[in-house]
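Module 6 notes. Inverse folding takes a fixed backbone as the condition and produces residue identities as the prediction. Think of it as a translation problem where the source language is geometry and the target language is the twenty amino acids. Below is one complete input and output pair. Work through it position by position during the lab.
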């Protein structure tokens, strides 16, 4: 079975190994494919948004369910207990983020050319290596979560009734680490399946929240429901990913074959992406945790309302990232950095144009939206809603540009850019939260995104 170097056939074979073009060329070894240009920037951008759209179809439903269960929790618990709930989940997410290797990026980055080059054995080796790192991460997450639970309780001022559920959360942090199966599903363009999988966790939480509302449940009940959602969500990723590998005959053996070795480039790449994702916590879960620790539980409840509302912008952005990185990786491998940069630029402009009107509406109607979701006691979240919407608008550009930088294999540069941005964000959080209150959190996040966008744009400009 031949590997064609022509860019167009290379991409077609990766996307669809049974392509008639591939079969025809294989049957006639003497034939040489006519030179052909790869897909244009417009065509590639359309493919990105098509894949993202498949993800959004499920994520949109999940977003609606998320707002619904958040509204029930907010109106049932009030700002303070709502804050305790979101801080417990933020704690678990921070621990998982620190321990987790972003092995999904390695599966795509190194797996794409393996699949294109018909190297199933090498791909199985890559998957086995990634799974081992996921298992090590899971064990480290449990130990770290248990070790820091008491200091976290003092910082967040958790009541004694919350602590048993916090310890249970410590043992379910591995289910927040499902990097390898996520990479497998993205690599093989299973975006529609990924989209519908996004409904699972919010669906569990919504059903549980409704049941608690009817039964008059309290904080402990909501914590149990949140934990159940994490368990089912993480388990489903592994089930779908393993099923996809089995369907394609790519399941790795339990033990390494004689002479089989991991590539030296894999571990350094994963270590760098792990550090990058850890630094990324400065703009995701760390602001919520610092807000609760510095200003009190109610302030974190206000910020969570703003985050969930702005996630109507963020969810499509996340799906764009999931769809962009695999596509940009293919373009960079087949057509070079210049073509990939054009696709990234077009994707940024299109996504920003779609999201800008929504962000503007949030700025004008932030308080009514906060009241609608959380009730009158959450009116102070109105300003945060508008600011978080602006932060999400900046995030759109950063997400696509980061995918371009990672597609070029420049994980080290991404690490430096993330570190600079995160350092500024954390510094501003520590200064702004005591000075201006909860609004300091989204303000610090916005400043961090601006720095990151500038760094990524400079890297892509130099590459092309």
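Target side of the pair, the amino acids:
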């Amino acid at each position: 079975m031949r590997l064609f170097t022509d860019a167009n056939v290379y991409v077609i074979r990766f996307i669809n190994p049974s392509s008639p073009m591939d079969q025809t060329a294989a049957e006639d070894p003497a034939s040489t494919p006519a030179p052909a240009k790869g897909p244009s920037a417009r065509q590639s951008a359309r493919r990105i948004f098509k894949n993202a759209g498949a993800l959004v179809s499920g994520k949109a439903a999940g977003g609606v369910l998320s707002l619904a269960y958040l509204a029930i929790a907010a109106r049932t618990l009030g700002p303070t207990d709502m804050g305790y709930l979101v801080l417990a989940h933020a704690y678990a997410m921070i621990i998982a983020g620190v321990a987790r290797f972003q092995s999904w990026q390695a599966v795509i980055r190194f797996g794409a050319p393996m699949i294109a080059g018909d190297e199933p054995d090498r791909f199985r080796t890559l998957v086995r290596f990634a799974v081992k790192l996921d298992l090590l991460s899971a064990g480290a997450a449990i130990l770290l979560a248990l070790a820091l639970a008491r200091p976290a309780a003092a910082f967040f001022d958790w009541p004694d009734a919350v602590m048993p559920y916090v310890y249970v959360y410590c043992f379910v942090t591995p289910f927040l680490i499902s990097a390898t199966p996520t990479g497998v599903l993205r690599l093989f363009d299973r975006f529609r399946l990924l989209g519908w999988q996004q409904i699972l966790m919010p669906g569990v939480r919504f059903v549980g929240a409704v049941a608690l509302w009817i039964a008059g449940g309290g904080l402990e009940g909501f914590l149990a429901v949140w934990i159940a959602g994490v368990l089912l969500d993480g388990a489903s990723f592994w089930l779908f990913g393993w099923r996809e590998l089995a369907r394609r005959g790519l399941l790795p053996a339990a033990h390494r074959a004689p002479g089989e070795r991991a590539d030296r480039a894999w571990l350094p790449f994963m270590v760098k992406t792990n550090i990058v994702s850890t630094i990324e916590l400065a703009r995701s879960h760390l602001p919520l945790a610092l807000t609760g620790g510095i200003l009190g539980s109610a302030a974190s409840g206000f910020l969570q309302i703003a985050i969930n509302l702005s996630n109507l912008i963020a969810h499509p952005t996340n799906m764009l990232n999931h769809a962009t990185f695999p596509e940009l990786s293919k373009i960079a491998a087949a057509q070079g950095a210049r073509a990939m940069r054009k696709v990234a630029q077009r994707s940024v402009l299109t996504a920003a144009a779609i999201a800008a009107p929504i962000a503007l509406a949030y700025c004008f109607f932030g308080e009514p939206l906060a009241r609608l979701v959380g009730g009158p006691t959450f009116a102070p979240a109105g300003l945060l809603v508008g600011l978080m919407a602006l932060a999400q608008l900046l995030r759109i550009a950063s997400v696509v540009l980061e995918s371009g930088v990672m597609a070029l294999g420049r994980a080290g540069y991404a690490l430096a850019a993330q570190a600079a941005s995160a350092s500024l964000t954390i510094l501003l959080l520590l200064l702004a939260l005591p000075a201006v209150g909860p609004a300091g959190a989204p303000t610090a996040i916005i400043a961090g995104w601006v720095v990151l966008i500038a760094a990524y744009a400079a890297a892509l400009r130099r590459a092309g």
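Reference fact for the lab report: DSSP finds 18 helices and no strands in the chain.
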